[in-house]
Amino acid sequence: MNITKLNHSSTLGQAIKADTARLPLIGERVSTIAHHADTQQITEDATRKNEILEWFSPLNFFRTQQDTIARREEGTGQWLLDSSEFQRWLSGADPTLCCPGIPGAGKSVLASVVVDSLRKPPVKHDSIGVAAIYCNFKERDQQSPENLVAGCCVQLIQPSRNPLPEVFNDVYRKHNSGTTRPMWEDIVRIFEDTIKNLDTVYLVVDALDECSANARKILLDYFKSLPANTRLLVTTRHIDEITCHFIESPKVEIRANPVDLRKYITTRTAGNHRLDGYVSNDPSLQTHICDKVTTKADGM
């Protein structure tokens, strides 16, 4: 009897030991399952987030920014970033900066330079938001005031890994899960709700003159009541209807900068095998070309 009990105890001890040895493996499997579940949930949340944001605004200003900054000659536009007016705007000393210029002066590229500089490290993206509006007369039908401001909301929200703020979900549900379009009031509500969670928001509006007259009026009226933590920079042609709204704001005239022109010309001649041969043989020719083009450019 004692021998039987002893054998039973030994078998039980071995079973417990075997089960205990398997515990780390079971723990790893549980951890793996939990990780897969978390990953799947993150993927589903990201998919839903993108679905709602695409519904919220059909305009993709991220792509426009990418296409516009690609036209920049490396190193150009620095004169604007270094200007005292821009630095005061950047610091918040002047919350609004108006940058008028003639057609062909490079306003859109300079706007993209500003946006690019604001989005580069060491910007703390959790506390600072950057949004750009690129108006285009060819897209007036799609660039309604609602879509333009909604495009700003998307730029402020999409880079974050956080879930969509609940206000987005509220508006999405209100419009039958995206079967109808958000109204102006919905968009302003979301825009201001998004802004209030940030320390500073930089809003760059390019070519405001290319908006429809109705969109321009609505935007200009709304810009007067932007939250205090918002800095607004606007580029436009010289149109009194627009510039009169910025009489008390600092201004920087957008003109083709001589230094930028020389950089552009130098790069272009270097890329042209025929011209590069002439310039290499006669360095003074490069200077002559730059002088002539810069003089004739007249700010364009």
Description:
By secondary structure, this protein is of the alpha/beta class. Helices cover 59% and strands 9% of the residues. The chain contains 13 helices and four strands. It has a four-stranded parallel beta sheet with strand order 1-4-3-2, with helices on both faces. Strand 3 (200-206), helix 9 (213-223) and strand 4 (230-236) form a beta-alpha-beta unit. Helix 2 crosses helix 5 (107-119), helix 6 runs parallel beside helix 8 and helix 11 (258-271) crosses helix 13 (283-297). The mean pLDDT is 84.
Please outline the major beta sheet: 4 strands, parallel
**Spatial separation of the terminal alpha carbons:** 107 Å
State which percent range the strand residues make up.
Answer: 5-15%
Rg over alpha carbons: 29 Å
State the helix count: 13
Topology:
Layout: H1 2-56, H2 61-69, H3 78-82, H4 84-91, E1 96-100, H5 107-119, E2 128-134, H6 145-157, H7 166-174, H8 184-195, E3 200-206, H9 213-223, E4 230-236, H10 240-243, H11 258-271, H12 273-281, H13 283-297
Helix pairs in contact: 2-5, 6-8, 11-13, 12-13
